Amino acid sequence: MTATLLSIGHGYSAAALARRLAGWRIIGTTRRAEKADRLRAAGIEALVWPGEDLRPAIAAASHILISVAPDDDGDPVLRELAEAIGAAAPHLAWVGYLSTTGVYGDHAGGWVDESTPLTPSTRRGQIRVLAEGQWQRLAERAGLPLHIFRLAGIYGPGRGPFEKVKNGTARRIIRENQFFSRIHVDDIAAVLAASIARPHPGAVYNVSDDDPAPPEDVLTEAARLLGLPPPPEVPFDEAEMTPLARSFYAESKRVRNDRIKRDLGVKLAYPDYRAGLCALLAAEG
């Protein structure tokens, strides 16, 4: 039987995983018909959802990846498809849910790991905790081989800082003791592939690199690689930001990634932002 991945919400991280799964059948969902056409051109069996019936794809899947963001009521995938996914549990080898390190909340720059209590201070983090719990309850009830991946800030091709640094719109927002953890999209894909190869139902993994750092340090390094002066500094209290951008600064923490190395044998291709930025710049020419 051909290994079949159903990727619900087939976006940036899921696409990176799909590129690693040579010989697999990949079924991916998207909300827009025009994106479905692009997925088909990349060899993905695309379905528009919400809209099309996903139950045949669930029945055909050996593996399911969920990348859909929750809303105020939790996970929209489960609201519509919990019964079908639960019924498919006996023939599923692996289910992955992409969450966020935002579930840990603010730790004033301190370290967190997978055993840290979930105390999010933002609404975005709170609804992720709600969605994680919904998936865990379904897993317990139906015997679903669930794996939760808490992703740090994602960067990679098309999502680097270079364009803003080059065009002069980048600003180094300065806030004392502000730490963010990051992860290159290719390392996300490596972690997911390693988990698929070594499933451990019920596992939770932080997916982050080895070097949490203040956001201004990343922009300084991007400017150095471009041979440009660092972007201007702006104190956090004076910075003009969208409410979403400002909410990212509400929490400061450093995320431990020991479990993906110990339990999955993952060796990060980009263990810090310096390596990741250097590779991005080289790829962009």
UniProtKB/TrEMBL annotation:
Q: Which UniProt keywords apply?
A: NAD
Which residue range or ranges hold the NAD-dependent epimerase/dehydratase domain? 81-207
Report the superkingdom from the record.
Answer: Bacteria
User: Sorted alphabetically, which CDD domains does this protein's record hold?
Assistant: SDR_a4 (cd05266)
Q: Which Pfam families does the record match to this protein?
A: Epimerase (PF01370)
Q: Which InterPro entries match?
A: Epimerase_deHydtase (IPR001509), NAD(P)-bd_dom_sf (IPR036291)
SUPFAM superfamilies annotated for this entry? NAD(P)-binding Rossmann-fold domains
PANTHER family recorded: EPIMERASE-RELATED (PTHR43574)
Q: What is this protein called?
A: SDR family oxidoreductase
Q: Which organism is it from?
A: Albidovulum sediminis
